[in-house]
Every structure is written in structure tokens, then in C-alpha cells.
Amino acid sequence: IILDMQKFSLFNNDLRKIRLFAKLTSELYPERCIGVAVNADVVTTIMWNLFAPLLDQRTRDGVAIFRPGRFEGWLQNTIGLDVCPPSLGGTLSEELPPMS
């Protein structure tokens, strides 16, 4: 799961949808679920750093949080840029619509 947080705001997103999506994904594909937040703001990064130690190691290992411009190498090595949209530095020819 790649969550581009560039235009993310608590005011313009339905957190219930995000929670439901995360819950279903982790229940249906627990071994394959990796959560990646790219273009995360300072608040998100700080919150993750505060709460991550409270989570078990397996959960922490399945989450990566990146500030703007610091995720391309991780995406290339972990997922592959051929399956990432151009907005994330990838070469996928078809942009996927925003989740709404």
C-alpha cells in the first residue's frame, strides 16, 4: 500500500475509509502487507516516531514513512519503479485515480 500524503489533510479525507482499507488489507494479506507513506509531513513523521516503539516489531517492519523526496530509492529497491506512477518517480504508463 503506497499512501501519497502530498495533499493529505484530516479535513479532506475520510479516515474511516483509510482505516477500513488498512484493516481489510491486513486481514486478507497479512504476510504481504507493507504500508508506505510518502511525502509525509513533519507531524506524521513525529507521530510515527512516538508511537512506533509501542508496536510489535513485525508491525514496525511493515511500515515505512518518508518525507518528500526521500522515498525514490526505497521504492526502486523494494517495489520497483515499473509499477509506480510517474508522480512517485516511477515509469507506470497509467496513472491510477485517487482513492475516494
TrEMBL record:
| The organism's place on the tree of life at top rank | Eukaryota
Tell me the ranges covered by the CRAL-TRIO domain, including all copies: 1-96
Q: InterPro entries in the record, alphabetically? A: CRAL-TRIO_dom, CRAL-TRIO_dom_sf
Protein name as catalogued: CRAL-TRIO domain-containing protein
